Amino acid sequence: MIITIDSRIRDSVIVELKDGNKTVLKKVGSDPVDLTKEILEEASIKLENVDKFELINLPGSFTGLKIGASAVNAFNYALGNIKSDKDIVLPNYGSEPNISQRKS
Asked: What is the second-level CATH architecture of the domain 2-87?
């Protein structure tokens, strides 16, 4: 079983429990951790029964992507899936940040 987190839209996070390519459960909300908890409870499975967490890593909301990547990395760390820095998911922002000058 795999859980995917799509947090490209900050207040519309999608968390899916997948068995292969088939979606078993899907939840939409604002907090990927709460949604994951709901999915695990509804599916009557424990975190240890999840093979890995994946981030839908396409450009989107800066904050949303940071939150999603942090959740995926935390869950994968808890499952023992992070063995080196190469296993850490980094958000794909799609472009360099557009930071404007502070107004006086």
From this structure: 2-Layer Sandwich (3.30)
Position 10 scores a pLDDT of 84
Within the chain, which residues score under 70 in pLDDT? 97
Q: d(Cα 73, Cα 79) in Å, to the nearest integer?
A: 10
DSSP string, the chain: -EEEEE-SSTT-EEEEEEETTEEEEEEEES-HHHHHHHHHHHHT--GGG--EEEE---S--HHHHHHHHHHHHHHHHHTT---SGGGS-----SS----PPPP-
